[in-house]
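Below is how a single chain appears once it has passed through the pipeline. First comes the sequence as given, then the structure the pipeline wrote out for it. We keep one example in the README because the format questions we get most often are answered faster by looking than by reading.
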Amino acid sequence: MRNMILSMMLAFDGFLGGSNRYSQSMDEGFNQRANDLLFAYGLLTLILLFGGGVKLLLPLGVLTEHIPVPNILVRFIGVAEVFGAMILARLSRIRPV
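Resulting structure:
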């Protein structure tokens, strides 16, 4: 609700030829949210890559020792997690530095 009110004030102020004093505070809030979202996407990407990498690289005997699941299912989940991380990184436009 607050953002809607601020955007209406910004539009009205710009329409009247005002100084756009609200635009700076809205831009700062938007940039902060975008950075927070980018951080969350990056963290989720790393978690998916780690989980998928573990399922792909560790021996199947270690992974299925306590929970009896088919070996092919463990590998499939690992591949799905790695591809999910790649797709998430691509959709959120996270680029390596």
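The first helix runs from residue 2 to 15.

See the next section for the split statistics.
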